[in-house]
Amino acid sequence: MADQVALAALTDEIVSCRACPRLVAWRELVAREKVARFRHEVYWGRPVPGFGDPDARILVLGLAPAAHGGNRTGRVFTGDASGDFLWPALFRAGLADRPGSRRADDGLTLFDTYIAAAVRCAPPANKPTIGERDTCAPFLRRELALLTRVRVIVALGAFGWDAALRALAVGGLEVRPKPRFGHGAEVGIGPYVLLGTYHPSQQNTFTGRLTADMFDEVIGRAVALVRDAPPTTG
């Protein structure tokens, strides 16, 4: 089982992080200025921690919180269009207790699944710098070490794919040549299987580059892998 005390302590550390001045300034500016449709809401305006089942065998890894999604609600993929695509897929796969989530206090429960972002603060234009990426990377490595039952990592987009590979490489699980990202890409890395899917962002879902069926196929593959995996003792 995961060390839930250590995981909670890591969450507290993530939420209080102010290591990247540009990201701190941006997330707090967005939280102050808001947008018209959310003008009456109090924004979170801080780094967004991971969320889900601490004994999960599936880790879903995204890029970063949305400015008016996770940066507003305080929970990853909550209150934005990407989440509106993600949650129904997890629900269809039996990994969530409901097909939608708009608020962090709505009681959403994940089964066998934990969700995190490679960068924990909303970045301008949704594009963190290399330095910001690297500064945030230790959080993911520590999370993986604490989520001892994780066996499948579903990377949402190339950024998540690369973040997962870097995190595993630091832990001594480096693959050469570097596996290429693609939708449906799959590679075994030590005790893990890394799966790739296009990110459920509007630029992919609205254009048809990523359809619900395509996404369901990758999530279904993750479920099948953990279902068929030998029992874990961590």
Keywords:
single chain, 234 residues, alpha/beta, Uracil-DNA Glycosylase, subunit E, 6-stranded mixed sheet, 6 strands, 40% helix
Molecular structure report:
The chain has 234 residues and is an alpha/beta fold. The protein has a single domain, classed as Uracil-DNA Glycosylase, subunit E, CATH 3.40.470. Helices cover 40% and strands 12% of the residues. The chain is built from 8 helices and 6 strands. A hairpin with a 2-residue loop joins strand 5 and strand 6. The termini are close together. 43% of the residues are buried.
- Overall number of domains: 1
Strands across the major sheet, in which order? 1-3-2-4-6-5
CATH superfamily label: Uracil-DNA glycosylase-like domain
Helical element count?
8
Helix content: 25-40%
Structural class: alpha/beta
Rg from Cα: 17 Å
Low-confidence stretches: none
How many beta-strand segments? 6
Task: Give a short summary of the structure.
The chain is of the alpha/beta class. Helices cover 40% and strands 12% of the residues.
Topology:
Layout: H1 4-15, H2 21-33, E1 51-52, E2 58-62, H3 70-73, H4 81-92, E3 113-117, H5 130-146, E4 152-156, H6 157-170, E5 186-189, E6 192-197, H7 202-205, H8 212-228
Parallel strand pairs: 2-3, 2-4, 4-6
Antiparallel strand pairs: 1-3, 5-6
